[in-house]
Amino acid sequence: MNKTRTEGTWEAKAGLARMLKGGVIMDVVTPEQAELAQNAGAVAVMALERVPADIRTQGGVARMSDPDMIKSIQQIVDIPVMAKCRIGHFVEAQILEAMDIDYIDESEVLTPADEKNHVYKFDFKVPFVCGATNLGEALRRIGEGAAMIRTKGEAGTGNVVEAVRHARSVLGSIRKLKVTPPEELMTIAKEMGAPYDLVKYVHENGCLPVVNFAAGGVATPADAALMMQLGMDGVFVGSGIFKSGDPEKRARAIVEAVSRFNEPEILAEVSRNLGEAMVGINISTLPDEERMADRGW
Amino acid sequence: MQSIGVLALQGGVAEHATILRKLNFNVIEIRTPDVLNSISALFLPGGESTTLLFLMNRWGLTEPIQRMGENGFPIFGTCAGAVLLSSSISEMGHEIKQESLHLADVKAIRNYFGRQTRSFIEDLSIQGLENTFRGVFIRAPLLQPLSERVDVLSSVDDGPVLIRQDNLWLSSFHPELTSDDRLHRLFLERSGLLSREE
């Protein structure tokens, strides 16, 4: 081994997320679904035992997936394989790292294991993605070592409204910070509960130091393109594909839509004849304890 | 001002564009074949090669780019972009069926160094550059030459990571993830698009 070689650096962690930009990451529960996702142009798959829509209906404690199930997916596809650990469950994260998973999603879709603390992600060579509903939360996660951020949305509902809210909140705060005079930054950091150096970074650069994806409730090519036009770097699609009438067609259409998100004629073409979309839930009818976006802090 | 194209279907597009703009080129994002005739060189960025190939086929870019490459047009592929340019692709541990542009006499072995936890940074000696270059390797392929036409410009202990075959340049690492523009400049100089600086 060459003496100058270093593994698991920040550049390598955040760099992989940069290479996922403009792409679609799909939730899969079987090797067959993973293969379908890869053939449909997914940039990565999220290996899960249950998609969020099923976690909602079945209830109970949702945990990290069975390693065998994750292995079977790693063996079938060549694209990166992600997996979820519970918020704050650093041992699930250690297990996923030991299994050579490519990215860990410390996810509110699973039942949180720690009510106060998230995983200290700098301890790991494997990169993490975390959800955020606003800029302060995004910067706290980055401060703990997250190399990629996503909106939380309201996973498993097929309703994009929460993802839009989170995207607008994060991106709107970034736009505001850009024109904030420097003497106000410390107070803003205090009010947001975010590390000062990261607040300063956003002020100076006008963007997050990591890639920012949309997640939660994306069900159609139009939903995906909406998130891209709002300024997100890429899209996670959870239940939206495999809970729809024709997963293969829908998966391809969403990938195509993200690659040409600014061209309505193309979006019209790819949106045609996709079969039934997932049914979806009106979020205002969800009881508070079932709202996943409120998990994590 | 000359225009350089960056394939803009997925991946590290903005990173290449930033470096090229700093070098005073006009950057054209390539999503459709109709703008290909207005560029003087093309970058294929890092990303996922299966995704890029799916989208190139879908939007009619595969054949036009293949023809340009065969006719001496300067193309630089980084990581996934290099995989696309290779004549043969395999995955570490098993053979895979993956199409490509089949332009350079190179076998790209995807994920040669392992999965993401094995991604690494290493300082490289590159033929044509005076000082070492910071190589960012992310789930990187190894590039094995299959003919005499291929020049190896840089290697790590495991094998070649930067190669050139006439108009085609392939790197298994990501020069676009550093703020170092020397490799972009070298490619553009050797392609006659940039005069050598002092």
Question: What are the salient characteristics of this protein?
Answer:
heterodimer; A: 297 residues; alpha/beta; 8-stranded parallel β-sheet; 13 helices; globular; B: 198 residues; Rossmann fold; 7-stranded mixed β-sheet; 5 helices
Strand order of the largest sheet of chain B: 2-1-3-4-12-11-10
Q: Characterize the overall form of chain A.
A: globular
Number of helices in the DSSP assignment of chain B: 5
Distance from N terminus to C terminus of chain A (CA atoms, Å) equals 42 Å
Unreliable segments of 5+ consecutive residues of chain B:
none
Q: Mean of residue pLDDT of chain A?
A: 94
H/E topology pattern of chain B: EHEEHHEHEEEEEEEEH
What's the number of domains of chain B? 1
- What's the level 1 CATH class of chain B? Alpha Beta
Residue share in helix of chain B = 10-25%
Could you give a quick summary of the protein structure above?
The complex is a heterodimer of chains A (297) and B (198). Chain A is α/β, with parallel strands linked by helices and 297 residues long.
Characterization of this structure:
- The complex is a heterodimer of chains A (297) and B (198).
- With 297 residues, chain A is of the alpha/beta class.
- Chain A has helices at 10-19, 31-39, 52-58, 67-76, 90-98, 135-143, 161-178, 185-192, 196-205, 221-230, 239-242, 247-259, 264-270, and strands at 6-7, 24-28, 44-47, 81-86, 103-107, 128-132, 148-151, 211-213, 235-237.
- Chain A has an eight-stranded parallel sheet with strand order 8-7-6-5-4-3-2-9.
- In chain A, helix 8 packs across helix 9 and helix 10 (221-230) packs parallel to helix 12.
- With 198 residues, chain B is of the alpha/beta class.
- Chain B has a single domain (3-190), classed as Class I glutamine amidotransferase (GATase) domain (Rossmann fold, 3-Layer(aba) Sandwich).
- Chain B has a seven-stranded mixed sheet with strand order 2-1-3-4-12-11-10. A three-stranded mixed sheet of chain B has the order 5-6-9. Chain B has a two-stranded antiparallel sheet with strand order 7-8.
- The model of chain B has no long low-confidence stretch (mean pLDDT 95).
- The interface between A and B is large, with 42 and 43 residues.
- Strand 1 of chain A pairs antiparallel with strand 7 of chain B.
